[in-house]
Write a structure and sequence with these properties.
The protein has about 120 residues and is α+β, with helices and mostly antiparallel strands. It contains three helices and five strands. It starts with 13 loop residues before the first strand and ends with a helix.
Length: about 120
Protein backbone atom coordinates (compact mmCIF):
# COMPACT_ATOMS: atom_id res chain seq x y z
CA UNK A 1 0.00 0.00 0.00
CA UNK A 2 1.36 3.41 -0.97
CA UNK A 3 1.26 6.31 1.46
CA UNK A 4 0.93 9.68 -0.21
CA UNK A 5 1.54 12.99 1.50
CA UNK A 6 4.16 11.71 3.92
CA UNK A 7 6.74 14.42 4.33
CA UNK A 8 10.43 13.72 4.36
CA UNK A 9 11.86 14.13 7.87
CA UNK A 10 13.52 17.45 8.56
CA UNK A 11 17.27 17.52 8.32
CA UNK A 12 19.05 17.60 11.65
CA UNK A 13 22.64 17.88 10.45
CA UNK A 14 23.91 20.55 8.11
CA UNK A 15 27.17 21.42 6.43
CA UNK A 16 28.50 24.58 4.87
CA UNK A 17 28.24 24.77 1.10
CA UNK A 18 30.13 26.88 -1.39
CA UNK A 19 28.48 29.49 -3.60
CA UNK A 20 29.46 27.44 -6.67
CA UNK A 21 27.85 24.31 -5.23
CA UNK A 22 24.61 26.21 -4.53
CA UNK A 23 24.47 27.92 -7.95
CA UNK A 24 24.37 31.18 -6.00
CA UNK A 25 23.29 33.98 -8.40
CA UNK A 26 25.71 36.40 -6.73
CA UNK A 27 28.57 34.01 -7.48
CA UNK A 28 27.43 33.47 -11.07
CA UNK A 29 26.66 37.07 -12.06
CA UNK A 30 28.15 39.28 -9.36
CA UNK A 31 26.12 41.67 -7.21
CA UNK A 32 25.99 45.16 -5.84
CA UNK A 33 25.43 46.48 -2.36
CA UNK A 34 24.27 49.98 -1.45
CA UNK A 35 25.55 51.36 1.85
CA UNK A 36 24.82 54.60 3.66
CA UNK A 37 28.12 55.65 5.21
CA UNK A 38 26.40 58.53 6.99
CA UNK A 39 25.27 56.02 9.63
CA UNK A 40 27.45 54.18 12.15
CA UNK A 41 26.26 50.82 10.83
CA UNK A 42 27.02 51.88 7.25
CA UNK A 43 30.52 52.97 8.26
CA UNK A 44 31.15 49.55 9.81
CA UNK A 45 29.85 47.78 6.69
CA UNK A 46 31.97 49.87 4.33
CA UNK A 47 35.07 49.40 6.48
CA UNK A 48 34.56 45.62 6.48
CA UNK A 49 34.12 45.52 2.70
CA UNK A 50 37.15 47.70 2.01
CA UNK A 51 39.60 46.21 4.49
CA UNK A 52 38.49 42.79 5.69
CA UNK A 53 36.15 41.09 3.18
CA UNK A 54 38.86 39.89 0.79
CA UNK A 55 36.54 40.39 -2.16
CA UNK A 56 37.14 42.32 -5.38
CA UNK A 57 34.82 45.27 -5.99
CA UNK A 58 34.36 48.64 -7.61
CA UNK A 59 33.24 51.52 -5.43
CA UNK A 60 31.06 54.44 -6.57
CA UNK A 61 29.69 57.39 -4.59
CA UNK A 62 26.13 58.12 -5.70
CA UNK A 63 24.46 61.54 -5.82
CA UNK A 64 22.16 60.65 -2.91
CA UNK A 65 25.13 60.05 -0.59
CA UNK A 66 25.04 56.26 -0.79
CA UNK A 67 28.05 54.15 -1.72
CA UNK A 68 27.59 51.42 -4.34
CA UNK A 69 29.92 48.45 -4.05
CA UNK A 70 29.85 46.33 -7.21
CA UNK A 71 31.25 42.84 -6.69
CA UNK A 72 32.65 40.78 -9.56
CA UNK A 73 31.22 37.38 -10.47
CA UNK A 74 33.07 34.24 -9.46
CA UNK A 75 33.72 35.12 -5.83
CA UNK A 76 32.12 34.06 -2.57
CA UNK A 77 29.13 36.15 -1.55
CA UNK A 78 28.38 37.29 2.02
CA UNK A 79 25.72 34.65 2.68
CA UNK A 80 26.42 31.45 4.55
CA UNK A 81 25.05 28.61 2.46
CA UNK A 82 24.09 25.37 4.20
CA UNK A 83 22.71 22.07 2.95
CA UNK A 84 21.50 18.97 4.76
CA UNK A 85 24.18 16.31 5.08
CA UNK A 86 22.02 13.75 3.29
CA UNK A 87 21.68 15.91 0.17
CA UNK A 88 24.17 15.23 -2.56
CA UNK A 89 25.94 18.31 -3.95
CA UNK A 90 24.04 20.31 -6.55
CA UNK A 91 26.94 20.09 -9.00
CA UNK A 92 26.50 16.33 -9.28
CA UNK A 93 22.73 16.29 -9.72
CA UNK A 94 22.77 17.23 -13.40
CA UNK A 95 20.46 20.21 -13.00
CA UNK A 96 20.30 22.05 -16.34
CA UNK A 97 21.62 25.59 -16.12
CA UNK A 98 20.90 28.68 -18.16
CA UNK A 99 23.78 29.99 -20.22
CA UNK A 100 25.51 32.71 -18.21
CA UNK A 101 24.60 35.38 -20.81
CA UNK A 102 20.88 34.53 -20.61
CA UNK A 103 20.95 34.42 -16.83
CA UNK A 104 22.71 37.77 -16.70
CA UNK A 105 20.11 39.25 -19.09
CA UNK A 106 17.26 37.96 -16.90
CA UNK A 107 18.93 39.35 -13.76
CA UNK A 108 19.48 42.78 -15.39
CA UNK A 109 15.91 42.83 -16.72
CA UNK A 110 14.57 42.16 -13.22
CA UNK A 111 16.82 44.83 -11.70
CA UNK A 112 15.79 47.41 -14.29
CA UNK A 113 12.10 46.56 -13.85
CA UNK A 114 12.44 46.95 -10.10
CA UNK A 115 14.27 50.29 -10.44
CA UNK A 116 11.64 51.64 -12.86
CA UNK A 117 8.87 50.58 -10.50
CA UNK A 118 10.60 52.33 -7.58
CA UNK A 119 10.95 55.54 -9.60
CA UNK A 120 7.29 55.33 -10.63
CA UNK A 121 6.27 55.04 -6.98
CA UNK A 122 8.40 58.08 -6.07
CA UNK A 123 6.64 60.16 -8.70
Amino acid sequence: MEHFGIARPLATHWRRASCAEMDCPHYIWGWETLIDERTDFGKMQADYIRHKSGREFKEEVLANGLIRFEFHAGQRCFREHKVPLEREPLLTRGVPRLPVEMGRWIWEFNQNSYNLNQRRKQG
